[in-house]
Amino acid sequence: MNNRERFLKTMHFEKVDHPPFFMDSPWDDTWERWYREGYPKGTSLADYLKVETLEFGHVSIDTFLIPPFKPTVVEENDEYVISTDCYGAKLRKFKKHTTMPEWLEYGVKTDKDLVALIDRLEPQWEQRMPADWLERRLKLNENKNAVVCAGGGSYYGILRNLMGVEAVSVMLYDSPDAIRRWIEAYHRLIMQILEITFAETSVDYIWFGEDFAYKTSSLISPSMYRELIQPKHKIVTDFARARGVDIFFFDSDGNINQILPDLLDAGINLFYPVECAAGMDPLALRRKYGRKILMIGGLDKREIAKGKEAIKRELCTKVPPLIEQGGFIPRIDHSVSSDISLENFIYYFELLKEIYGEK
Question: Which of 53, 148, 154, 228 has its CA 20 to 30 A from that of 358?
């Protein structure tokens, strides 16, 4: 059984020898710590841990602005770099520690600014399609071990990146027509891309990248989601289901409990990273939603940092019952933070292998 088969069977609650290993992602700071603690540079994490990790193949048609904003470096010193990104936002990234950037200014400030960008959502296929599209498509179709995903859109996520949470929140109330116009144009582009994708590529799941939530709640109200975005999500999921795809991966940090029933109603069913620090509990979610919900993540990074006793408690409480039921792939809930020592990470992963029945 290869990892693609393990992934698909796990997500359909079918019996597997064990779920696939979905490799964790250490921060840059974490790597630096691990190098000091003896990790051999130049060795992949999968090789170091002696496992075959889940491989993903991504359909690479550009779903963003054409042309994008041009990234530029505004200021740089020993402590940080201030730059603009492809969304037109100005941000400060610190060099000596890994953290979220500090957003200083956004490229879109008004409803007029947003509407002015709608023309950049036109197809313009010669720029959206990678030059080696044919070669990439053939490789995706030939690779039987990789799980292939196509983008279902980032309706809220792109708006947040263009203007920031505060401005999006205000505009949802003050200028809903501008938001609607943007979403309609963006949705047309997504559907055109999906038409091309399904005509030419075998797809295993659809990915939505929204980051809908913060620590305690969603960033958009359920009623606004139902009015503005849910109908588009539902069109995407219906389109894919009609073509044999029934796994819909929703990538959002934070606490999505408030909005999760509406996401399920939109046909979305696979949630990541199930962030424990934000009150997401994979055991509680399984009890509440049963087989309606699929999950990847759900292992509390704070517990992995505490040492062997906490790690054993975290894994042995959650992993055996959830993988026995299916529909769950354990993973640290998002990136591996630098408070996790190499010794603790090795212990965590070796225990996970033991629970899986792998040596």
Answer: 148
